[in-house]
Specification:
By secondary structure, this protein is mostly helical. The chain contains 8 helices and no strands. The longest helix is centred in the last third of the chain and has 34 residues. The relative contact order is 0.13.
C-alpha cells in the first residue's frame, strides 16, 4: 500500500532526489547510509532503547527512499544498484530482528516467525517477477508496512506488539501472493495448452 502511495508522490520524490544528488551523487552511497542506520537501530534494540531504535529506523527508511530518487535524478539506475539495494534491505531486516531478539522483548519464536515470513514475502515477489507475475503492491505486509509497524511500536516502547503484527501481516501477504502467482501461472498454462482462460 505504501509503495503505491510512493508512486503517487513522483514529483516530490523527483525534487528530493535532485536535491540529495547535489549533496551525494552516488545512489549506492545513500543505500549504504540507510544500511548503517538500520545497523545502529539493531544495536540500540540490543541496548534496550526502543524509541531511539525507532528513530533510527525512520532515518533508514528515509534513505531507502532517497537512494532510488537519486538514481532516477542522476540517470544511474542499474541492475547492480537494484541488486545491492534489495540485498541490503534483506540484511537490514535481518539485523533489526536480530537486535529485537537479543533485546529479549518477545519470545524468540515470534521473532523467528516474523523474520522468516518477511523473507518469504520478499522471496515470493522476486520469484513471481522472475516468472512474469508482477506482485508489486500486492498484500498488506510489504517491507514498507512492516517497517512502519516496527517504527510506531518502537517509539511507543511496545516493539513486542510490533513483532506480532508483522507476523500476521507477513503471513497474510505471503499467502495472498502465493495464491496470486499460482492462479496467474495456472491461467498461463491453460492458454498454452489451448484451453480458454477462466473468466
Amino acid at each position: 500500500m505504501l509503495d503505491r502511495l510512493r508512486g503517487s508522490l513522483g514529483g516530490v520524490l523527483a525534487s528530493l532526489g535532485s536535491k540529495a544528488a547535489k549533496v551525494i551523487p552516488s545512489p549506492t552511497a545513500w543505500t549504504l547510509i540507510g544500511f548503517v542506520f538500520a545497523f545502529l537501530a539493531s544495536v540500540f534494540y540490543v541496548g534496550g532503547d526502543q524509541p531511539l531504535a525507532g528513530l533510527l529506523l525512520i532515518l533508514s527508511g528515509l534513505f531507502d527512499v532517497i537512494d532510488g530518487a537519486v538514481a532516477r535524478a542522476t540517470s544511474k539506475i542499474s541492475a547492480r544498484g537494484a541488486f545491492l539495494d534489495s540485498t541490503l534491505d534483506r540484511v537490514s531486516e535481518l539485523l533489526v530482528f536480530l537486535g529485537i531478539l537479543l533485546g529479549n522483548y518477545v519470545s524468540p519464536l515470534f521473532v523467528l516467525l516474523a523474520l522468516a515470513l518477511s523473507l518469504l514475502v520478499s522471496y515470493a515477489r522476486a520469484k513471481g517477477d522472475a516468472l512474469g507475475v508482477d506482485l508489486a503492491g500486492i498484500g498488506v505486509g510489504e517491507r514498507s508496512e512492516r517497517l512502519v509497524v516496527l517504527i510506531a511500536t518502537s517509539l511507543l516502547g511496545i516493539v513486542w506488539l510490533g513483532v506480532l503484527i508483522v507476523v500476521a501481516l507477513a503471513l497474510l501477504t505471503f499467502v495472498e501472493r502465493t495464491i496470486r502467482v499460482s492462479r496467474a501461472l495456472g491461467r498461463t498454462q491453460k492458454v498454452a495448452e489451448g484451453a480458454p482462460p477462466p473468466l
